[in-house]
Amino acid sequence: MPRSICTGWTCVLKIALPILWLGFCSLATLIVIATGGRGLAELCFAWLFGIGFFCWQHAHLKQVAVDDHALYVSNYSRRIAVPITEIEKITENRWIGGHPVWITFRRPTAFGRRIMFMPPYHGLSLSSHPVVRELRWRAGLEKTAA
After folding, report:
1. How far apart are CA 69 and CA 137, in angstroms?
2. Which helix (H) or strand (E) holds 45?
3. Among 41, 64, 96, 112, whose Cα sits 20 to 30 Å from the Cα of 122?
4. Which of 136, 138, 135, 134 is nearest to 146 (CA)?
5. Considering the entire predicted model, what is its pTM?
6. pLDDT in tens, 103-122
């Protein structure tokens, strides 16, 4: 049975947070317009900045699970299985909260050659995330087990 290796917050980061931001900014825009329009330009900038940030940081997040033979990748409307042998490279950004992880495959999948996910929180550490070490080992990219 596949085991999830991504944060339980993936749905919140990918879907709920942008929707809440849109709702908040829409309400704020209505209030600004109803009270005379002062600050509308600043509000529009904040709205665009926020949406841009969410799209840049979270729109590509995937749900990822693993078993002995495959990665199971989902974008909430579609789920695919990719053999672990198809993993070409695994990278992470240790400097961004949540340690976003990118997996590059040898061949394109239904989601492209590269996917991104956020592993479960494991503290304020600059060392490689245990999930990354495990995946590298499973894919034969690292010699020792996690």
Report:
1. 13
2. helix 40-58
3. 112
4. 134
5. 0.80
6. 999 999 999 999 999 898 87
